[in-house]
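Lab manual, section 2.4: Encoding a predicted structure.

Procedure: take the sequence of the chain (197 residues), apply the prediction step described in section 2.3, and record the output as structure tokens. A sample record is shown.
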Amino acid sequence: MLEVGCGQGELTTALHVAGYEPLGIDPIAPQSDLFRRVLLEDLEPGEGPFDAAVAVQSLHHMRHLDDNLDRLVALLRPGGLLVLSEFGWNLADEATLDWLWNHRRAIASAGTGDAPASFEEMREDWEAEHVGVHPFEALRAEVDARFEERAFEPEPFLYRKLRGAAPTEVLEQALIDSGAIQALGFRYAGIARPPKG
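Recorded output:
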């Protein structure tokens, strides 16, 4: 199993402990036989083939998403599984950003964080923070061109940006379920399509 963008290696290590044979890749990966300090495009072909790949919050910022996904398909066995946890930053509508802003203001008033001076400033910060980040539609189009969807589930994402405000994930999910705000996160599983050729 390949973990793309493993960061400090928590998931790769957990997969190893659970009995899998994972390889985690990331320029900041730990020094260990379980890891390689490389980007996906630099991973040697001899490292594969892999039965599955997992990527948690790592595809959205890849410069050449199409080439990287082609590379990922080439590293998987035929019919290999891709499991993603990602987000679509551009899915945030006014109500969703307003919810985020109000939570940031509440956290700031408690002295445990900061908040922009106005909703407009936060919206500008949100846009600036995601310059160059692939929008949801681009992620889905590139993934769908190479993988056949087996599962797709929207999920909360903004609670991660609120760092420790205890009930926010549960509250965010409840508001998503009621239709009050948008789900920005998503989980996806798909099977590699045969390479075009």
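Check your result against the sample. The longest helix spans residues 94-109.
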